[in-house]
Amino acid sequence: MPFFLRPLRPLRPLRSLFAQVLLALVLGVLIGLFIPEFAQKLKPLGDGFIKLIKMIIPVLVFCVVVHGIAGAGDLKRVGRVGVKALIYFEVVTTVALGLGLLLAYTFQPGAGMNVDPATLDAKAMSAYAENAGKLTGGGTVEFLMKLIPTTVVDAFAKGDVLQVLLFAVLFGCALALIGARGKAVATFVDDLSHVLFKIMGIIIRLAPLGVFGAIAFTVGKYGIGSLKQLGMLVVLFYAAVAIFVFVVLGAIMKFSGFSIVKLLRYLREELAIVFATTSSDSVLPQIMAKLRHMGIRDSTVGLVIPTGYSFNLDAFSIYITLAAVFIAQATNTPVSTTDLLTTLAIALVTSKGAHGVPGSAIVVLAATLQAIPAIPAVGLVLVLVLVLSVDWFMGIARALGNLIGNCVATVAIAAWEGDIDRQRAHAVLDGAIVTDLVAEPADDLAPLRLSAA
Question: What's the fold here for domain 15-446?
Fold first, then answer.
C-alpha cells in the first residue's frame, strides 16, 4: 500500500502524557492570547477535570490509609511514622517561613510603593475578612475540634481530607487489632482501592483537556502582561520557591540518599498538570501511586501525603511571610523584631487550616495580618486590591512548591524509618524500571508488572 494511503498514526512522542500536557499548555496560551473571549468560556474544562479528581480523593485516601495500616501489623511503627511526620512538617515549615521573611527584608519588594490606605475600598475585603475570622477564631483548640467530623458520612461528603484521614487511621487500627476477623473487610478495602485507581487512570487521560481549558481561561482573562503590576513580588516569590526546592529540599533529599533533580524528572507529568491547574489536589492520586511505585511502604505514603496537604505547605508558608512584609513596606508601616516573630508564630498556626478554605492564600494572609497590631486593618484591603491581582501567578509556584515539599517529605520520612526499598527507588528514579501508571493504575496496589528499560 502506498504510504499516502496508509492510515495516519499519532506521533510517538505525543503518546506521552507529559507531551500531551505540554501541547495543551501551548495551545491554551495561544487561544488565550488571540481569542480571549472564547478562551474565557473554556473555564469549565479545567474546573470539571479538578472536580473529577476531587470526587474520588476522600474514598481513595481512606482506602490507601486503611490498607496500609491494616497490612503493616505493627501499630507502634505506624504511630512512630505519624509523629516523625508532624515533627518534620513543623521544622521544614518554620524554615520556609523564615526564608520568606529573610528575602522580603533583603530585597524589600514593597518599598517605595507609598500606597495610601485611605484610597482603598474597605468593602472589597469583607468576604475574605470573614473567612479569615474562621481561621483565627477559637485558636488551636477550635482547630483541633474541627478535625473531628460531625459524622463519618459528613467528612466524606465535604471532602475534608484531614477528617477522612482521622477516621481512616481509627478504622485501620481497629482492623489490625481484631486480626483474622477483619480480613474480609481488609480485602474489600484493598479491592475497592484497585477500582478507584482504575477510575483515576481513566480520569487522568482527560488531563490535557483540563490543562487546555484552565490555561486558556487564565491567559484570556488576565493576559500575559498581568505580571507587570507586581512583578517584583512575583519574581521574588518564584526565586524563593526555587531556592527552597533546590537548596533546602535538595539537601534533605541528598541526606536521604537521593537526588531532587531525578525526583522532579520522575514527577514531571504531575508537575505539568499542577502548573496549569494551580491545584495540587488534581494529582494527589497519581502522586501516591508513583511514590508507592518507587518502593515506599503503603502506610507511609498513606499517612504522610494526605497529612502533608494540610500540615506541610512549604511554598504557602514562604508566601505568607513574604506577602505580609510586602504589605507593611507598601504602606510604610514600621515592623519590629517582635512583630516579625509574631508573624512567624501566627503563620505557623493559620497556615495549617488553609487547605480547603475558599481563596485560602488570601484568607490566611488576612488572618495573619489581623493578628499583628502594627499593620493597620486597612492593610487587609491592600491584600485584595494589590496582592490578589497577581495571586494566580503566585498560585502556580505555591502549588508546585507544596507538592514537591510533600513528595520530599514522604521520601525523607520513609528513608528515616527504613520504609523504602532503596535499590528499587534508585532504579525507578534512574529510569531503569518503567511502568505505565496511567494505563494500569490498579496494578500499583499489587506487585507491579514491570519492564526493564
Answer: Proton glutamate symport protein (1.10.3860)
